[in-house]
Design a protein that fits this description.
heterodimer, A: about 110 residues, mainly beta, 7-stranded mixed β-sheet, 4-stranded antiparallel β-sheet, about 0% helix, about 50% strand, globular, B: about 110 residues, 6-stranded mixed β-sheet, about 55% strand
């Protein structure tokens, strides 16, 4: 079955620690996205990538970093510079381009600070 | 600007009631419009979409019509079920980015 997988489902971070959230897709999509969702809130865009080896900052990129070395993978690192990382993180992908194609979402990773 | 505004929740209905969740957008040009649904602890699932004016998206009894003259994309369902309880997000495409509304929580009571 084609889809998007995110791991882990829950992740705990200690003060001053960097953590990496995994996102993998087998939909052969060019574009991938990371969103942050806080309780009772909508989605805010962290980073997005339209093609391998290229990515752009979204609306709340500070304290986060990404890489896009493979088409199917778009890991997100939450760095120690992100002072309020507790949230639900959602990865999405689309076929990309200029046609505003549908975004498909993974199941999410919940990040908690110890 | 580019934004999406949807009615605040929670919306509480009895089973078989009629549902409307309002969504309006601001945009230049002709964006694609989407409704997504999120069940507790899960990611978002596409519910329906419309790509041009006067298009009607529909799925699982839900409908929404792309109204360019009122810049709206209201979600409707004639008879809700308990299993429809979830958070609903309106979204618009903008080339390589999406803009999401803040979400509307729907509670359906038996």
């Amino acid at each position: 079955d084609g889809g998007i997988t995110q791991s882990p489902k829950y992740l705990f971070r200690k003060e001053g620690q960097n953590v990496t959230l995994s996102c993998e897709q087998n939909l052969n999509h060019d574009a991938m996205y990371w969103y942050r969702q806080d309780p009772g809130q909508g989605l805010r865009l962290i980073y997005y990538s339209q093609i391998v080896n290229d990515f752009q900052k979204g609306d709340i990129a500070e304290g986060y970093s990404v890489s896009r070395e493979k088409k199917e993978s778009f890991p997100l690192t939450v760095t120690s510079a992100q002072k309020n990382p507790t949230a639900f993180y959602l990865c999405a992908s689309s076929s990309g381009g200029q046609r505003q194609e549908t975004q498909y979402f993974g199941p999410g990773t919940r990040l908690l600070v110890l | 600007g580019n934004s999406v505004t949807q009615m605040e929740g929670p919306v509480t209905l009895s089973e078989e009631a009629f549902l409307t969740i309002n969504c309006t957008y601001t945009a230049t040009g002709y964006p694609s419009l989407f409704w997504y649904v999120q069940y507790p602890g899960e990611g978002l699932q596409l519910l329906l979409k419309a790509t041009k004016a006067d298009d009607k998206g529909s799925n699982k009894g839900f409908e929404a019509t792309y109204r360019k003259e009122t810049t709206s994309f209201h979600l409707e369902k004639g008879s809700v079920q308990v299993s429809d309880s979830a958070v609903y997000f309106c979204a618009r495409g903008n080339f390589n980015k999406f803009y999401f509304g803040s979400g509307t929580k729907l509670n359906v009571k038996p």
